[in-house]
Fold each of these.
Amino acid sequence: MSWNPLFDEFVNRMRSHAIPLRLQLWNGNHFDLSADPRVTITANSIGSLRHIIHPTLDNLGKAYVEGDIDVSGHVMDVVAVAARLAEANNSTERPTTRIADHTKELDKDSISYHYDVSNEFYAQWLDQEMVYSCAYFKTADDTLDAAQVQKLDHILAKLNLRPGQTLLDIGCGWGALIIRAARKYGVKALGVTLSQNQYDYAKARIEREGLSDVCEVRIQDYRDVSGQFDRITSVGMFEHVGLKNLQTYFKQVNKLLADGGVAMNHGITSTDPDSRSTPFGGGDFIDRYVFPNGELPHISLALREMASAGLEVLDVENLRRHYALTLEHWADRFDAAKERVLALAGEQRYRIWRIYLAGCAYGFRQDWIALHQILATKSGGPEMNKLPLTRDYMYRHP
C-alpha cells in the first residue's frame, strides 16, 4: 500500500482533534490540523512519514534527533503537540517497567554518558552554582539562581545540621551542596560522584575557595563508601540505582549513617503505582538518548524499600511543580544559548537535549513523574530520632 492513503487517513483523523499543528512535506505541500497552527513538523522525505503516522513520543523524538523531521515553534509547544498526537493516536499500550542489571561498570558508563559531555555545556543553561536538580521556588517569579540556592538551604535545613558534624553527599554533582554545607553550616563534607568532569570541577572549586580542610570530593561508587556520617544526602542520584538495587542502596545509606543521624533522599519518582515508565513512549526516548538504564520507583516502592533497609521515614515532600518550573527555566536558557551549545555539542546532541528538557517539563506538569524529598533516620526508638517534634525548625534557616 502506498503512503498516500495511510497519510490521508491519519490527517483526517487528527483534524478531528484540532491539534495546533502544520504538517509540511518535502515536496512543499502542507496540511493544517487546526485553524491556528503554532507548531510545524516538516517531513524531510517519504520515509519520515512512518514516524509521523505512528506518533509516539519515542518515534517523533527519534525522528527529530536523527534529522528525519524538523520542527519549528516554541519548544514547549512542540512537546505539547507531540503529546497530543500520541494521545489522539489512541495508543493503548501500557508502559513497561525497565529493569537493568546495575553493575558498578554499567552505572559508571551510564553516568559518564550523561554527565561527561563537558562542564561548559552544562554551564550554558544551569544556574551559577551548577546545580543539576530540582530547584525550590518560594514564588513562581523567583530566578533560577535564587531557587537553586533556596533548594540547597531547604535540604540542609531539613537535616538540622550542627557545626562540626560530618556530611556525605552521594552523587554530589559539581559540588554545590557540600560547599554550601561546609561554608554556611560549619560541617565537614564529603561528596562522591562517578563523573570525571564533575569531580574535576568540584575539586578545583573547593581548592579555589579555600575549603580543602572541610570539603572533599571523590570518584567513588556508593557501594564502596565506608565510614560513619552524621548526615547523608542524595540528590538526583537514586534514579540511577535501579529498582532491583533500591534495598541495597538504602541498606548502604543505613550502614553509613551514624546512630541518631539523618538522611535525605531527593529524587525523581514514577507516578505509576507499578513503577512503569512514562506514557506514550517518553521514557523509551529518555532511555535511548539521555539517561541509559535509568529507573524510577513509585514513592510507595521507595518508602517500602527504605523501611526494609531499616530506615524510619520522618518526612516526605513532593516538589513536582517545582521541577516543572526548574525545567522550564532550563529549556528557555538552553534555547537562548543555541549557538554556543551547537558549537560545544553538535547538532544531534543539541536536538536530544532540547527536546528532553522541554519534554521533562511537560511530564512534570502533567503529573507523569514527580520529585520527592524523603527524610529518614535509622529505625529503633528515641535515641535514633533526635529531631525536633515539629517541622518548624526546617524553616528557620541560619
Amino acid sequence: MTTTSGLRPTPRAAAARPASRAPRPGTLVAVAGVWVVTRVVMALMLVHGFHGSDIVRVEVSVTYHNWYNVLVTGTMPHNDIMWQYPPAAAAIFLSPDLLPFLTYFQAFVALTVLCDGLILLGLCRAARRSDGSIAGALLWLGALPLLMATPFARYDVQVTLLAVAALLCLRFRPRLGGVIAGIGAMVKVWPLLTLLGTPRGKSTRDAFVAAAVSCVALLVVFSLFFRDTLGFLGNQGDRGIQIESLGGSVLMFLRVVDLWPGEITFQYGAFEYTGPYVSAIARASLALTVAGFLLLLLWRVKARRWTTATPLDAAFCAIMVFTVTSRVLSPQYLIWLLGLAAVCLTCRHTTQRPIAWLVVVATALTNLIFPVMYGTDILASTPLGTFLLCARNGILLYATVWSGIRLWKATVPADAAAL
C-alpha cells in the first residue's frame, strides 16, 4: 500500500516492494510479432471490405475527407450536423498531410496503426514497473482485433492514445499527465476523466492546473487559425437515441415484441429511433449520466485508501459510466474501454480485472452487432439482433455497476462510508 501523497512509498515500503516482473525479451518479441500479424489482417479487412467493412471505410474516405476539405480553408465544418467535436479534433483530420505521398485514406489508416502501436508500447513499458503486469498489453493486443476493421477507420484510437498516455504519466509526472489529458479533452472531451482518481494533494493540483492551462492554450491557438471553433456545440443538443445505446436496446426489445410503434431514421450521422417515448428515454440517459458522476464525486470525497492502481481504476470506472449511459454508444466506444481496461491491467493492484474481461466479452459481441450483422439483423430489429444488442448492453451495464462497487470497497473505509 502506498501513501496518498503522490503515490510515493515510504523507504520501508520501498524496501519491502516485490521485485519487478518485467516481461522477458522473448515475450516482447512474441508480442511484437502478434501485433504485426493481427494489424495487417485488420488493415486488409478494411481495404477489402471483409464482412461489412466496406461500410466502415466510408467514415474516413467520405466523412473525414469532407471535413478535411473544409478545415484546410481555415474554418470548422460546423454547418455539418455530424461535426460534434472540440476544436483540437481538427488536428486529427488534418494529420494525413504528414504523409503527402499517400492518399487521404491510406495516410489516415497508417497514422491510426501507428497510434495503436504506441499504445501497445506504453502498456509494455508500464509492465516493467515494480508492480507492473504484461496483462494490459496482452489485452490490448488480442482484444482490439475483435472489432475487426473498425478501429482503423475511426479516430478513437488516437483519442485513446492520449487517455492512456495521460494515465501512464500521472503516477510520476502529474503535470505532464494533466497536459495530455487536457489535450485529449480538446479532441474528444472524455480523456479529461482520466484525472478523476489522482491522489489528493499536490499531484491533483498539478494535474488539474496543467490540464486547464493546456485546454485554454489549445482553444486560443485554434481560435487564431480557424473560424467557428465552438460551432460544434450547436450540433450536440438535438441528438436522439442511437439504436446501439442502452436506451436503444430497450426500444428494440419493445419493437420486436410489438409494444412500440417507432421507426429508425438516419440523422446526425447515425441510425436513431424516432417515435413515442424517445425524448423521455434521452432525458433518462442524461439523468443516469449525471447520477453516475455524482456518485463518482461522492466516491472522490469519501475515498481514503489509495494504491498505485486507484487512479487507473477510477478513470476506467468513470469512462464506463460515461459510455454506458450515453445516448449513442457507437461501436468505437469499445476502443476507449479496451484502452483503459488495458491500463488497469498493467498494475497488479487493480480492482478492475474481472471488469476488464467483461469488456472483452462485450467487444466480441459488438463486432457481431457492427459491422457483421448491422444491416441484416440490427437495423431490421430481428430477434437475433435484439438478443445480441440486449446481451451486449446488459453486460456493459452489469460491468459498470460492478466496477463502481469494487472501486468503492477497495478505497472507502466502512466508517467513512457511513458518514
